[in-house]
Amino acid sequence: MLTARPTSSWRNRYEVALDGRPLTTWEASFWKQGGAFTLDGHRYEVRSNAWGTKSTMVDEAGTEIAAADRVGRKRWTVRYAGQTYEFRRHSMWSQRQDLYLGGNAVGHARRVSVWRREVELDLPVVPVPAQVFVLGVVIALWDAETAAVAAS
After folding, report:
1. What are phi and psi of 145, to 5 degrees?
2. Is residue 14 within 8 Å of residue 4, measured between CB atoms?
3. Is the whole model's pTM more than 0.70, yes or no?
4. Mean pLDDT of the 129-134 span
5. pLDDT at 70
């Protein structure tokens, strides 16, 4: 299980752990949706379009490694290493995102608490780099939703 805990109340930076062991740090971008992380000595950047509905993960050379489409919709997908993973919003009242394979829910991404920004991903069939990508995508999604509510 992948967990992410904010390092500060003022900065959008998360310490990411895999099964309780430190894995990487997710550093959200200040000016736009997305961010960056380093995994196994390789730096990856996550970029989103202006509406936040499409995100990509690129390596140091700018090569696309993963992509997420229709982010924020009821159903959205992630492509990584030739595989497509389908996510669905758990309900219209929840930020939880469920991973589906063959019509069955097999994992999830969720905030641990309504009051705290900690995140938990239980995506057993998804490779670790793609899990960190999904983490960045859902954090950006939830941050945008929170900002929209605060602005209204």
Report:
1. -65, -40
2. yes
3. yes
4. 97
5. 94
Q: Where are the domains of the chain?
A: 2-151
Average the pLDDT over 120-139 and give the result: 96
Reply yes or no on whether the pLDDT at 104 is more than 80. Answer: yes
Burial of 11 (0-12, 13-18, 19+ CB in 10 A): exposed
What is the arithmetic mean of pLDDT over 13-27?
Answer: 96
Residue 70 backbone zone (phi > 0: left; psi -120 to 50: alpha; other: beta): left
Higher pLDDT, 102 or 44: 44
Q: Which of 76, 30, 20 is nearest to 53 (CA)?
A: 76
Regarding beta strands 104-111 and 21-28, do their DSSP bridges make them parallel or antiparallel, or are they unpaired? unpaired
58 and 44 Cβ atoms separated by less than 8 Å: yes
